[in-house]
Amino acid sequence: YISIYSYVFAIFMSLWITMLIEFWKRKQNKFRQIWGTLADQTSFNKKIRLQFISNEEFSHINDEVKNQDTQKYISIIFKFLSRVFMTILISITVGVFLTLKQYDLGIYAGVINGLVSNITSNLFTMTVVKFNNKENHKHEDSFINSLIQKVFYFKFINTNITILWTIYQTDEDF
User: How far from chain centre, in Å, is Cα 61?
Assistant: First the structure.
C-alpha cells in the first residue's frame, strides 16, 4: 500500500540528499582553494584524447580560425542514438517480461527473462562503446565518465524494471 506520505518522504529525501551533495561540493572546493589544489582540476592540465577531432580549422589563406560545427552535430546525433538504442533494448526486455507473464511458465519465465536481460545488457555494452567513440570527447576522463554513466543507467534500469513492474502491478491487471 502506497500512501501520500511515501511520496512526501521520497521528495524530502531527494531534496535532502541534493542539498547534502551540493554543500559537500562547496566544502571540498573551499578546501581545494585553501590547500592550493584547485588549479589541478582545470582542463588545462588534462590530456587531450588522440581520437579527438577539433571543430576549429586554421586557414592559411587569410590567417583566420574557422569553426566547423559538423563534428558537434555528429556528436549530438550519436548521443541521441545511444539513448534511443537504450530505450529499444529496455522495451524488448519489458516486452518479453509482459509476454511471459501472460503464460503460466513458472520458473522458466524467470530464467527466460534473465537470459533476455543478460543478452540485451551485453548487446548494449558492445554498441555503446562504439557510440561513445563517435561522440568525440576531448578529454579521456569525460570519455570514461560518459561511458560509465550510460552503462550504469542501462544496467540499473534493465535489471530492475521487471522487479518494479511486478511490485506495482496486481493480479487483476493481467
Answer: 43
Q: What is the DSSP letter of 50?
A: T
**Angle of helix 70-102 versus helix 140-168 axis, rounded to 10:** 20
Contact residues for 121 (Cβ-Cβ < 8 A; gap 6+) = 154, 155, 158, 159
Output the pTM of the full model: 0.59
Sign of dihedral through CA atoms 88, 153, 13, 30?
negative
CA distance 166 to 133: 36
On the question of pLDDT at 42 being above 70, the answer is no
Q: How many Cβ atoms sit within 10 Å of the Cβ of residue 83? A: 14
For range 85-105, the mean pLDDT:
85
Whether the pLDDT of residue 167 is over 80: the answer is no
Residue 34 C-alpha cell reads as 585553501
